[in-house]
Amino acid sequence: MLSKFLLSLFSILTLLTSCQQQAKHYPYLIKVANCPDCFARLHHPGPIDTAEIRAGQLVFAGTVTQPDVYSVNVRSDTDKTINIHAEIYLPADSIQITLLPKDQQKRTFYHIYQRLEIGSYLRNATVFSTSPQQKELERYLYLNDSLWNKYFVDRSLLTAKMVQTYDSGNRALIEQWSDSARKFETRFPDYMAYSAVLFAKQHPHSELTAYALLDNTHNRPDVKIIQPYYRALPDSLKQSYFGQQLAAKLEELQQ
């Protein structure tokens, strides 16, 4: 009888513990400044919150159930050039996103890359966060964008050499460069995966290393590049939220 009572008590305690774990919430506070006519949404990956206007700023205040990388999208009905996509790590006690005046916006990368506004590393806004993971996330995003930019630069150089070859009239050389150009178009994922590899080498014990590797694991060729760095992760990172997702993704792609 006593053993049945203890078993029932253990089951109840286990259920209560499970419910408490499932109900855990992490608070966040995000403010967007210098954009009075803007609206903003928090995504993960779909919309989960919409900012309210408080004292002239856009403000998000709520909770998330999982520490992760989220995104804040900021747009304006009156200025169509404003299209901010800020990657942020939550939870965080306070995050401040500030839009920069046009004369202060960064012009780091290739003009086509800038014109298409396809990068993650913000050129038209700054992000301040109390979360220590935010700085590491931004280091990864900068590496990611740098390799994205390098792909376009290398493609432009290859195109220029191919044009010079066409002008030479050498058919064998023309065919060789044309073949190189066709193969180069398939190498974009390799450039992106290499950004994760660089980050893994620089930050082998960072929680964001598992995220960076996961962020660049999309198909079978990626597995060959990413898997050695997954294996090198400390056990604590392999068992982390991002590490478990990465393990599942690698296993899925190998089947």
| Largest beta-sheet details | 5 strands, mixed
Q: Which class best fits the helix and strand makeup?
A: alpha+beta
Report the end-to-end length measured between terminal Cα atoms. 50 Å
Low-confidence sequence ranges: 1-13
Strand segment tally? 9
Quote the beta fraction: 15-25%
The number of helical segments is 9
How would you state the average pLDDT, rounded?
A: 83
Global morphology: flat
Layout of helices and strands, plus pairs?
Layout: H1 2-22, E1 26-33, E2 38-43, E3 47-50, E4 52-54, E5 57-64, E6 68-76, E7 83-90, E8 92-99, H2 111-116, E9 125-129, H3 132-168, H4 171-184, H5 188-202, H6 207-215, H7 220-231, H8 235-238, H9 241-254
Parallel strand pairs: 1-8
Antiparallel strand pairs: 1-5, 2-3, 2-6, 4-5, 6-7, 8-9
Could you describe the 3D structure shown?
- By secondary structure, the protein is α+β, with helices and mostly antiparallel strands.
- Helices cover 52% and strands 23% of the residues.
- It has nine helices and nine strands.
- The protein has helices spanning 2-22, 111-116, 132-168, 171-184, 188-202, 207-215, 220-231, 235-238, 241-254; strands at 26-33, 38-43, 47-50, 52-54, 57-64, 68-76, 83-90, 92-99, 125-129.
- The strands form two sheets. It has a five-stranded mixed beta sheet with strand order 4-5-1-8-9. Strands 3-2-6-7 form a four-stranded antiparallel beta sheet.
- α3 runs parallel beside α6 and α7 packs across α9 (241-254).
- The protein is flat, with a radius of gyration of 23 Å.
- Mean pLDDT is 83; it is low at 1-13.
- Residues 1-23 form the signal peptide.
- It comes from Hymenobacter profundi.
- Keywords: Signal.
